[in-house]
Amino acid sequence: MNALAPLPTLANGVGQCGAREIVQERGQREVFCGLTGIVWLHRKIQDAFFLVVGSRTCAHLIQSAAGVMIFAEPRFATAILEDRDLAGIADIDDELDAVVDRLLARRPEIKLLFLVGSCPSEVIKIDLSRAAARQSRVHAPRVRVLSYSGSGIETTFTQGEDACLAALVPTLPQEASNAPHSLLVVGALADVVEDQFARLFDALGIAPVRFLPMRRAADLPAIGPNASFLLAQPFLGDTAHALQERGARRIEAPFPLGAEGTTLWLRAAADAFGVTQERFDAVTAPARARAEQALTHYRATLAGKRIFLFPDSQLEPALARFLAREAAMEIVEIGTPYLHRRHMASELELLPQDAPIVEGQHVENQLDRCRAARPDLVLCGLGLANPLEAEGFTTKWSIELLFSPIQGYDQAGDLAELFARPLNRRARLEV
Amino acid sequence: MQLTLWTYEGPPHIGAMRVATAMHGLHYVLHAPQGDTYADLLFTMIERRDARPPVTYTTFQARDLGGDTAELFKAAAREAYERFSPQAMIVGASCTAELLQDDPGGLAKALDLPCPVIALELPAYQKKENWGASETFYRLVRGLAGARRHRPQRDRKSCNILGPTALGFRCRDDIREIEKLLAALGVAVNVIAPYGASPQDLTRLGDADFNVVLYPEIALTAAQWLERAHGQPHTRIVPIGVGATRDFVAEVARLADIDPAATLSAESSRLPWYSRSVDSTYLTGKRVFIFGDATHALAAARIAQDELGFKVVGLGTYSREFARDIRAAAESYGVEALVTDDYLEVEAKVAELQPELVLGTQMERHIAKRLGVPCAVISAPVHVQDFPARYSPQMGFEGANVIFDSWVHPLMMGLEEHLLTMFRDDVEFHDGAAPSHLGGKQAPAPVPAAPVQSDIIVAWADEAEKELKKIPFFVRGKARRNTEKFAAERGVATITVETLYDAKAHFAR
User: Fold this and answer.
1) Which residues of A touch B351 (CB under 8 A)?
2) A135: left (phi over 0), alpha (psi -120 to 50) or beta
3) Domain count for chain A
4) Which end of chain A is more exposed for a tag (fewer CB within 10 A), N or C?
């Protein structure tokens, strides 16, 4: 850990040079670990189960991040390591097999089981991929068992989804070498958003279109050298790499946030599939008009307001681009836990040149900068939101951006509304 | 390795955070990997705290493991001291950091910071949240209370109130209620800790004449040490419920050498009268299942039986440290104690016992919802609803009022229950309808077939099955089980209407 001096504020003129300056910061990181992704992934893949091999802390984290006890019977659980496991009194393989047997007996509808590594399982080097292979043999063909790491040592928040999807990629069926050009949309989206995109691709004449993650374990999308893929989320570095290893080609695009982002995202796919500009315009025009109309409602609230984005999900640069270009907000600082330079290239081109990007975190110094800048709105995690509100700031909690449908034309207004609501609320309250 | 869906308690360092967050002027430096900062949101969201917990995490990652995580810890501790200038610090490791064996205590000592630094050893793979809170509080008290001192004879005795923490069940309001009670008795309060105390305050603990232990899970160890080291006796009775509050008043009066008569005669609880008023008759013998931390579960059982006239059919706790107390109490109620931290085991027990009311934690609220049984929350683990805006203590005479309301409210109202027993087929007023004062729309989830012992194989005649349906749903499961047991014991192969009523007579309360 080093004690970086507080960054110069915007007024001092950071990032004026042509090549964008990215400040890297190290210190306390106020972010979730990758296990948190289970909270939405276990709902997305409806017959999958996530078994964390970890500590009581892991179990407590997921249940707290999920909002304690929202779900009657969640499709996730924790195999909690105890002293006897660590001391080598119990054989970890036997213990884990017994837990999995018990779990699968209880949940016969489960078709896909993920063994999810955690900080302690990594530190004591439990080989979950070997365990998954062994259990897959035992439980085949009823259940497939895969493994990935969601540990905070390896992954930050949304990187857990990346690790999960990357673990799925080697299991995807191989397309025939003469298969037609296909499109794979990668990254968990709300079902409603996925359906909207499927309709748009269909109208554009792009087919076949498949989605990863799939809703049912059996519906693994096929992949091969004739497949192109389009990232729907910015945090999928390892998944993209694994897909490229399988011969698929990545379509470069910004992310489908806001009307502009969605258009550019769809346009990139349309170009890859030879869709004409006329057809593209004809298909997307009605939805674009709707998005524009919806955005107009919120622009009055957001325009000219200054926003500070704390690092959370890696969505931050894309969100800032949307807020700056489509809601006319002023960007004070864009924090991101990690910046995937290549996948973010299109986003960075669109971002205002003077918007400072800080990769990593030193939460105390960042709070100092935030306080000094006095932004109108702060995007931050749940640990910071109420304390900042109590200091007089208006905040938007960032985790909601992972739990809400925000991508695509028909959610552009909803996305703006998520940022406008805290400002509206503050304006309404007279107490 | 233990398979866990939901946990009643977090790891022990969360307990340490509950103590640190309740205090001011104390800072906790926690050696922990990235992600463990999730714990902050428990306090800022569930309890709606307006400040971050006073915790600095090292948030190490993979790249740090190759390097020097000990150095990382030292830098974090040094920086935390410089930034927050605490009166004292506690240092320790979370589960993953424990495996690294960096020895935060030794490292902090080597830093030679200009404030007391107390090292915590909280074995994360053996112990849990409440133990962690108790151990942390004990270490703080032991480290800061200083040497035994001479206490001058005073007219007005003084006490410390020990045990309330952040994220505790109604601690905020219990403190106020107990302060009022002590003021009425003429006992001065010296220090309340950990809630609202500073390390400086802890150095004054020894000035009090005795200690009031509100939450034994958190404060008993510290109070026992204070008794040995400072000669301060402590209270044993937790004042939840009218009877316990009266006993508590008497106990405090004895420790303070004063007469409790005035305080007892000014007792303000409405519970005794509400319970005696005739409209409460229908509460008689209601079958209640109780599960929570030991303190609240024990108190709830006493109130349920002695003050509301319920029948305790199940009593349990996740506080293994207090298993003996729960077992003893359970025996006195004629039930078997359930000591477990396995949510599924509790669920199976509730399904088996078919209670008419569940008193539990947020977990049991969930179980009860699934099983269609009314429920009131009596204990941590908590969620945001357990921090109501209004004054809502559990302790003292006002606490008893709150308890009466919050336990009776989820039940069907008396007249409604009677009518339901008489007329079951009214379109609006049938079995499946929820209590009318609770919205009255959706039927509670059907009680799943009770896990009937597989050795009972008896058939039901159609007529008997129809007759069974005339029994209100909230006791139907019990009636079915009893009848089947009755039939099986007598070798009756097919249950008839006659068998049903024979069984009813046999099991009549």
Assistant:
1) none
2) alpha
3) 3
4) C
Give me the residues paired with residue B26 across strands. Answer: B88
pLDDT of residue B456: 57
Centroid of chain to Cα B263? 27
Same domain? For B297 and B387 the reply is yes
The beta-strand segments (E) located in B58-154 are 88-93, 117-119
pLDDT score, position B207: 96
The overall average pLDDT reported for chain B is 91
User: Is residue A82 assigned to a domain?
Assistant: yes
Domain co-membership, B308 together with B327: yes
**What are phi and psi for residue A152, nearest 5 degrees?**
-70, -20
Contact B51 A153 (CB under 8 A): no
What's A361's domain CATH number?
3.40.50.1980
What is the nearest CA distance from A219 to chain B, expressed in angstroms?
27
Residues B77, B107 contacting (CB under 8 angstroms) = yes
Q: What single-letter amino acid sits at B387?
A: F
Host H or E run for residue A146: strand A144-149
> From CA B441, how far away is CA B434, in angstroms rounded?
6
Q: Which residue of B has its CA nearest to A97?
A: B1
pLDDT in tens, A324-360: 999 999 999 999 999 999 999 999 999 999 999 999 9
Q: Are B459 and B495 in contact (CB under 8 A)?
A: yes
Give A113's DSSP letter: E
Look up the ipTM and state it. 0.92
For residue A64, list chain B residues with Cβ-Cβ distance below 8 A. Answer: 38-39, 41-42
Q: Give the distance, in angstroms, between the CA of residue B487 and the centroid of all CA atoms in the same chain.
A: 40
| Neighbour-count burial of B37, counting CB atoms closer than 10 A to its CB (0-12 exposed, 13-18 middle, 19+ buried) | buried
Amino acid B482: pLDDT: 84
Q: Is B279 among the residues known to form the active site?
A: yes
- Identify the segments of chain B with pLDDT beneath 70: 413-456, 473-474, 509
| B32 and B121 co-located in one domain | yes
Low-confidence ranges of chain A (pLDDT < 70): 1-19, 66-73
Q: Answer yes or no: is A380 within a domain.
A: yes
The token duo for A355 is 């918007």
Question: CA-CA distance, B286 to A158, in Å (whole number)?
Answer: 49
